[in-house]
């Protein structure tokens, strides 16, 4: 189960944006609670282009209940131990160049690769690349194809995404995640202030025999 909450606002006087996001994730006997503080500064460029430079500081509390594992070796001292928890800190950076039609972004997370000896765990550095194109088809239809690549240089995964927006209020899309899943999504923007969305991930990897996919619901309040 995963729950996330995000709050951000635009600081026009400083050409900046400030935000905070919280993530709760539970998978098996592992739980994660993470908070990130984010800041971005914008530079206006030629031809209506905007360059955004961002930094983020994160705090993660990770807990693992080793006592619930069934070890192959019954004398394994780690898996026979009681639940353990530790706090890790990380730093992230990123930049985005945005024009009325194109968006290109690069970012890196967990730059300091924080480590917990108590949990025998280490955060690996990850890199992300995003590219999208925004195209109006007539007055009422907008299409936005995009490519999202993520890697730690040990393994790489990419998403190919297409979202169609009708009359600036109704949207639907499909996403293909290489060798992992196909996602379907849809939603509605109400009066430019509220957003309601839903997506379903259908697993196509070897995990398909054990996973029935995942559901995601998005509720957003957009305030200028």
Main beta-sheet strand count, sense and barrel state? 14 strands, antiparallel
Number of strands: 16
Structure classification: mainly beta
- Residues in helices, as a percent range: under 10%
Order of SSEs: EEEEEEEEEEEEEEEE
Residue-averaged pLDDT? 90
Query: What count of helical segments does DSSP give?
Result: 0
Low-confidence stretches: none
| Beta-strand residue fraction | over 45%
Which geometry do the CA atoms define?
A: globular
In angstroms, what is the radius of gyration? 20 Å
Distance between the termini: 31 Å
Structural commentary:
The protein is mainly beta and 224 residues long. Helix content is 0%, strand content 66%. It contains no helices and 16 strands. The chain has strands at 2-11, 16-27, 30-44, 50-64, 84-98, 102-109, 115-116, 121-122, 126-133, 135-137, 141-151, 156-166, 170-177, 181-190, 194-203, 214-221. Strands 1, 2, 3, 4, 5, 6, 9, 10, 11, 12, 13, 14, 15 and 16 form a 14-stranded antiparallel β-sheet that branches. A two-stranded antiparallel sheet has the order 7-8. The relative contact order is 0.09.
Structure at a glance:
With 224 residues, the protein is mostly beta strands.
What distinguishing features does this structure have?
224 residues, globular, 14-stranded antiparallel sheet, two-stranded antiparallel ribbon, mainly beta
What secondary-structure arrangement, pairings included, does this model have?
Blueprint: E1 2-11, E2 16-27, E3 30-44, E4 50-64, E5 84-98, E6 102-109, E7 115-116, E8 121-122, E9 126-133, E10 135-137, E11 141-151, E12 156-166, E13 170-177, E14 181-190, E15 194-203, E16 214-221
Antiparallel strand pairs: 1-2, 2-3, 3-4, 4-5, 5-6, 6-9, 7-8, 9-11, 10-11, 11-12, 12-13, 13-14, 14-15, 15-16
């Amino acid at each position: 189960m995963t729950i996330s909450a995000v709050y951000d606002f635009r600081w026009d006087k400083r050409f900046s944006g400030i935000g905070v996001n919280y993530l709760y994730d539970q998978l098996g006997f592992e739980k994660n609670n993470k908070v990130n503080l984010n800041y971005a500064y914008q530079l206006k460029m030629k031809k209506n282009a905007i360059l955004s430079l961002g930094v983020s500081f994160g705090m993660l509390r990770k807990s693992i209940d080793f006592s619930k594992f069934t070890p192959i070796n019954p004398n394994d001292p780690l898996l026979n131990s009681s639940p353990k928890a530790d706090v890790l800190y990380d730093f992230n950076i990123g930049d985005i160049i945005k024009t009325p039609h194109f968006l290109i972004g690069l970012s890196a997370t967990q730059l300091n690769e924080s480590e917990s000896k108590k949990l025998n765990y280490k955060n690996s550095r990850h890199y992300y690349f995003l590219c999208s194109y925004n195209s109006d088809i007539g007055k009422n239809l907008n299409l936005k194809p995009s490519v999202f690549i993520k890697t730690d240089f040990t393994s790489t995964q990419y998403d190919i995404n297409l979202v169609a927006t009708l009359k600036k209020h109704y949207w639907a899309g499909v996403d293909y995640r290489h060798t992992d899943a196909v996602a379907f999504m849809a939603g509605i923007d109400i009066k430019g202030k509220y957003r309601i969305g839903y997506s379903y991930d259908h697993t196509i990897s070897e995990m398909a025999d054990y996973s029935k996919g995942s559901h995601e619901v998005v509720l957003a309040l957009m305030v200028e």
